[in-house]
Specification:
It holds the Pfam family FBA_2. This is FBA_2 domain-containing protein. The chain has 295 residues and is an alpha/beta fold. Helix content is 16%, strand content 32%. A hairpin with a 2-residue loop joins β5 and β6. The longest helix is centred in the first third of the chain and has 16 residues. It is elongated, with a radius of gyration of 23 Å. It starts with a strand and ends in a 20-residue tail after the last strand. The C terminus is likely disordered.
Length: 295
């Protein structure tokens, strides 16, 4: 189930597990209706209109109150909570719904650069919670810590600073920078040096984008710690699976035995992958990787 709060009307989207058919409920504020039915949600009768077999309108006196009632009703009947929430101002109040009967959500904030002070405060608050996907204005600034997560995906990450990237590496396993960022090859060199100095113990994977593929300059200042591996290397973390051809990718080893390798992907993306030790990189596991995970 998806809750989409990026414009009116708000939408709840479902997929039927038997037919794979998508259904959408539109939540609208009450207006004059020529013909409608009524549904009872949370002990309250609410106007209901069926537009087609898979599209429905629900009319609310109070959008916030009735949305909570609807989500609670769906949870009680189907044991389902929103898997993803998309939210932009002025609908950031839907984020408060995550505090009830939901363990993890993905939030996508997409906002124009002229963001309000109130919105920025909300963004800073949410950055400390269990979000896994976020897009923010390029002029946004954040200096705090991030939540402990397996995966954090950023859309249009031009607002991220190098210090933010250092902080993310302390608490997030896989960091995914989708589309553009302001990071240069000098920044990525600083990032890998920061990791080499026994920082960012949680970090295992970073995907980022350059117009030109990264090369040996990423390891400037670390050349004496590079190794050549003459066997295939395999990286797996969650749904991520990458194979490194033997002998083509220098490996950086730090003093605790952890190793790092950088490789280029399609569409100008590159990745930094981390293993606990040299032996781990030879181990291949059979896992199902979504075909569209990267692109």
């Amino acid at each position: 189930m998806f809750l989409i709060a990026d414009q009116k009307p708000l939408q709840l989207s479902f997929t039927n597990s038997l037919s794979s058919q998508n259904s959408i409920i539109f939540l609208k504020e009450t207006t004059e209706l020529l013909k409608w039915e009524e549904v009872s949600i949370g002990g309250k009768k609410i106007p209901f209109v069926s537009n087609s077999p898979d599209k429905y309108d629900i009319y609310c006196d109070d959008l916030r109150v009735d949305l909570v009632k609807l989500l609670d009703y769906i949870f009680d009947v189907f044991d389902v909570t929103p898997a993803h929430i998309w939210a932009i101002p002025p609908f950031l109040w839907v984020l408060e719904l995550s505090k009830k009967k939901t363990e993890k959500l993905s939030f996508n904030f997409c906002e124009k650069d002229e963001s309000s002070h109130e919105s920025e405060d909300k963004f800073r608050e949410v950055l400390k919670t269990d979000i896994m996907w976020i897009g923010l204005p390029s002029n946004f600034r954040y200096t705090g810590s991030f939540a402990k997560l397996e995966y954090f995906r950023f859309v249009h990450s031009t607002w991220l600073s190098l210090e933010n990237l250092f902080s993310l590496g302390e608490t997030v396993v896989r960091i995914d920078l989708v589309c553009c960022s302001n990071f240069t090859k000098y920044d990525i060199n600083a990032f890998i040096k920061h990791w080499f100095n026994n920082n960012m113990k949680k970090f295992r994977f970073l995907r980022f984008k350059f117009e030109n593929k990264v090369g040996a300059e990423i390891y400037n200042g670390l050349e004496e710690h590079l190794l050549t591996v003459d066997r295939m290397m395999y990286f797996q973390s969650g749904p991520v699976a990458i194979a490194f051809e033997a002998g083509l990718f220098p490996v950086l080893r730090r003093n605790d035995g952890k190793i790092a390798a950088i490789c280029g992907l399609e569409n100008d993306y590159s990745t930094i992958c981390i293993w606990n030790n040299i032996d781990c990189c030879y181990q291949k596991k059979d896992i199902n990787v979504p075909q569209d995970f990267y692109f």
